[in-house]
Amino acid sequence: MLSQRQAPIAAIATAPGRGAVGIVRVSSPQDLTPLIDAICARQLRPREATYLPFCDAQGQAIDQGLALLFPAPHSYTGEHVLELQAHGGPVVLQLLLARCMEAGAGLNIRLAEPGEFTQRAFLNGKLDLAQAEAVSDLIDASTEAAARSAGRALAGALSKEVGELRDALIKLRMLVEATLDFPEEEIDFLQQADAMGRLAHLQARLDAVLDRTQQGALLREGIKVVLAGQPNVGKSSLLNALAGAELAIVTAVAGTTRDKVSQTIQIEGVPLHISDTAGLRDTDDEVERIGVARSWEAIADADVLLFMHDLTRVGQPAYEAEDKLISARLANVPAERILQVFNKADAAQLEGLPDGALLLSTKSGVGLAELRQRLLQQVGWHATPEGLFIARERHVQALKRTREHLVLAMAVASQEPPALDLFAEELRLSHDALGEITGTFSADELLGEIFSKFCIGK
Ligand SMILES: Nc1nc2c(c(=O)[nH]1)N(C=O)[C@@H](CNc1ccc(C(=O)N[C@@H](CCC(=O)O)C(=O)O)cc1)CN2
Ligand SMILES: Nc1nc2c(ncn2[C@@H]2O[C@H](COP(=O)(O)OP(=O)(O)OP(=O)(O)O)[C@@H](O)[C@H]2O)c(=O)[nH]1
Ligand SMILES: [Mg+2]
């Protein structure tokens, strides 16, 4: 690992394809002069763009571009970074990258792994882990709200919240550890230092951060919504209405949809990955049967199951019989994940419906706005995107573990007599869990997992 880290790396740092300008960048702990001499044929002033020809091994110009040298440690990675800003065609950039590999052979240069520039920035203390993840989330953001929130996380919004919790935790730990050294004072400590009061305060702050982090994770991961129900109830019509486009075929024929049709839309910046599925029924049609099997798979995988009823058929014996069969099979889907909606409100009489039933007409648009709100409510979205930072499920889990150990510490402290060493240990475990977010305590394995999901050149 270490020797790998020490080799210079190179990659095309702009998305492959046609762009006006493209960048090949090199990051190296060693001095890059030999490579610069070979390609740029002159010295570069630090952090100053120089317009020059990029030379191949024969001294022929590959392109005319800007060379930019960031000497260590004042660069993105904290190492020496050379940027060759060229014309953005894929072939010229590949040529330039190949030229860097050739000219850097003596330095043992190799191609960069995905995320390796940012990983080096992390290892050299330029970014903490939460910020490094935000770099990737910024690039991958699928909504404007997600991009803005990733920008805030990159600027350190999550790190700052975590840092404040950490400081409070460290203060408490210092008090406890000091007391451990003077066992005769143990009994008084918890009262004198108001350990319980501090813990309660810390927990309240942690809960606030956890809430914001959960909202940030929703913004990043989005929600998997599956539209299901009997054939012909209007599932595909709803997908089209939500997406604002004719994505799925709609006909009056029951059994129109066979394959799952998926589309990501956004509501208040929260990405919703919506899947329309084949109507649920027993059928002799082989293709439709496979479609229905896929519907059930999608249902099992849904964050929210939007189960649709057809008001023009509710109460009819055949419809109700089918509904019973389906309901029995739905019994193992947690009730809080299911949102029941009643469609075709424009064409039916509306008596005898359950209280709070969500009425809809994909035809007239009635109930759509309410449905959007209910979808967000269902997954616990209550934030306004302004001021939010993007986060990941990993951060949520680490905060939950931090909280668990705080709660255990409180339990220990309220025993008679309190076991101060156990109290100290729970605080330490809480501190460790918190440290996983910014990467103070993170296994190599976790780091590998995180950075491998980046795009190449980042
Ligand atoms: N051309 C180019 N544009 C880019 C990047 C890049 O690597 N190259 N970035 C890549 O992601 C982002 C900018 N990130 C950067 C982060 C730090 C430094 C840097 O030079 N840091 C020094 C000096 C800081 C200062 O002067 O305040 C340092 O940290 O010491 C440069 C770019 C977006 N735009
Ligand atoms: N009156 C009325 N008709 C609707 C409404 N929504 C859908 N329909 C009609 O109901 C029929 C079935 O609509 P689809 O969207 O194809 O239904 P589906 O649930 O996807 O059907 P399958 O793919 O066969 O499972 C079509 O003729 C639609 O025009 C509505 O709100 N009101
Ligand atoms: Mg359909």
TrEMBL record:
<dbReference type="InterPro" id="IPR027266">
    <property type="entry name" value="TrmE/GcvT-like"/>
</dbReference>
<dbReference type="Pfam" id="PF10396">
    <property type="entry name" value="TrmE_N"/>
</dbReference>
<dbReference type="InterPro" id="IPR027417">
    <property type="entry name" value="P-loop_NTPase"/>
</dbReference>
<dbReference type="InterPro" id="IPR005225">
    <property type="entry name" value="Small_GTP-bd"/>
</dbReference>
<dbReference type="GO" id="GO:0016787">
    <property type="term" value="F:hydrolase activity"/>
</dbReference>
<comment type="similarity">
    <text>Belongs to the TRAFAC class TrmE-Era-EngA-EngB-Septin-like GTPase superfamily. TrmE GTPase family.</text>
</comment>
<comment type="function">
    <text>Exhibits a very high intrinsic GTPase hydrolysis rate. Involved in the addition of a carboxymethylaminomethyl (cmnm) group at the wobble position (U34) of certain tRNAs, forming tRNA-cmnm(5)s(2)U34.</text>
</comment>
<feature type="binding site">
    <location>
        <begin position="232"/>
        <end position="237"/>
    </location>
    <ligand>
        <name>GTP</name>
    </ligand>
</feature>
<dbReference type="InterPro" id="IPR006073">
    <property type="entry name" value="GTP-bd"/>
</dbReference>
<feature type="binding site">
    <location>
        <position position="83"/>
    </location>
    <ligand>
        <name>(6S)-5-formyl-5,6,7,8-tetrahydrofolate</name>
    </ligand>
</feature>
<feature type="binding site">
    <location>
        <begin position="276"/>
        <end position="279"/>
    </location>
    <ligand>
        <name>GTP</name>
    </ligand>
</feature>
<comment type="subunit">
    <text>Homodimer. Heterotetramer of two MnmE and two MnmG subunits.</text>
</comment>
<dbReference type="InterPro" id="IPR018948">
    <property type="entry name" value="GTP-bd_TrmE_N"/>
</dbReference>
<feature type="binding site">
    <location>
        <position position="232"/>
    </location>
    <ligand>
        <name>K(+)</name>
    </ligand>
</feature>
<keyword id="KW-0547">Nucleotide-binding</keyword>
<dbReference type="InterPro" id="IPR004520">
    <property type="entry name" value="GTPase_MnmE"/>
</dbReference>
<keyword id="KW-0630">Potassium</keyword>
<dbReference type="InterPro" id="IPR027368">
    <property type="entry name" value="MnmE_dom2"/>
</dbReference>
<feature type="domain" description="TrmE-type G">
    <location>
        <begin position="222"/>
        <end position="380"/>
    </location>
</feature>
<feature type="binding site">
    <location>
        <position position="256"/>
    </location>
    <ligand>
        <name>K(+)</name>
    </ligand>
</feature>
<keyword id="KW-0378">Hydrolase</keyword>
<dbReference type="InterPro" id="IPR025867">
    <property type="entry name" value="MnmE_helical"/>
</dbReference>
<feature type="binding site">
    <location>
        <position position="126"/>
    </location>
    <ligand>
        <name>(6S)-5-formyl-5,6,7,8-tetrahydrofolate</name>
    </ligand>
</feature>
<feature type="binding site">
    <location>
        <position position="257"/>
    </location>
    <ligand>
        <name>Mg(2+)</name>
    </ligand>
</feature>
<protein>
    <recommendedName>
        <fullName>tRNA modification GTPase MnmE</fullName>
        <ecNumber>3.6.-.-</ecNumber>
    </recommendedName>
</protein>
<dbReference type="InterPro" id="IPR031168">
    <property type="entry name" value="G_TrmE"/>
</dbReference>
<feature type="binding site">
    <location>
        <position position="458"/>
    </location>
    <ligand>
        <name>(6S)-5-formyl-5,6,7,8-tetrahydrofolate</name>
    </ligand>
</feature>
<feature type="binding site">
    <location>
        <position position="236"/>
    </location>
    <ligand>
        <name>Mg(2+)</name>
    </ligand>
</feature>
<keyword id="KW-0479">Metal-binding</keyword>
<feature type="binding site">
    <location>
        <position position="253"/>
    </location>
    <ligand>
        <name>K(+)</name>
    </ligand>
</feature>
<dbReference type="Pfam" id="PF01926">
    <property type="entry name" value="MMR_HSR1"/>
</dbReference>
<keyword id="KW-0342">GTP-binding</keyword>
<dbReference type="Pfam" id="PF12631">
    <property type="entry name" value="MnmE_helical"/>
</dbReference>
<keyword id="KW-0963">Cytoplasm</keyword>
<feature type="binding site">
    <location>
        <position position="25"/>
    </location>
    <ligand>
        <name>(6S)-5-formyl-5,6,7,8-tetrahydrofolate</name>
    </ligand>
</feature>
<feature type="binding site">
    <location>
        <begin position="343"/>
        <end position="346"/>
    </location>
    <ligand>
        <name>GTP</name>
    </ligand>
</feature>
<keyword id="KW-0460">Magnesium</keyword>
<keyword id="KW-0819">tRNA processing</keyword>
<feature type="binding site">
    <location>
        <begin position="251"/>
        <end position="257"/>
    </location>
    <ligand>
        <name>GTP</name>
    </ligand>
</feature>
<feature type="binding site">
    <location>
        <position position="251"/>
    </location>
    <ligand>
        <name>K(+)</name>
    </ligand>
</feature>
